[in-house]
């Protein structure tokens, strides 16, 4: 049961990170892709 809880927590955290980055780079989690357009513009 703990493994399922850890997997769900990881999935939720990844969902939050992608949701936050969606406006910047389309939801890429790779920092180079996420912050590259911010540095260029």
Automatic annotation (TrEMBL):
Q: Specify the protein name.
A: Uncharacterized protein
Cross-referenced Gene3D superfamilies: Glycerol uptake facilitator protein
GO cellular component labels:
membrane
* Subcellular location(s) of the protein: Membrane
Q: Which UniProt keywords apply?
A: Membrane, Transmembrane, Transmembrane helix
Q: Tell me which InterPro entries the record gives.
A: Aquaporin-like, MIP
Phylogenetic placement of the source organism? Eukaryota, Viridiplantae, Streptophyta, Embryophyta, Tracheophyta
Q: Does the keyword Transferase apply?
A: no
Among the GO molecular function terms of this UniProt record, one is:
channel activity
Would you say which domain of life the source belongs to? Answer: Eukaryota
* Record's keyword annotation contains Ribosomal protein: no
Q: Write down the membrane topology.
A: Multi-pass membrane protein
Pfam hit, one: MIP
Q: What is its main location?
A: membrane
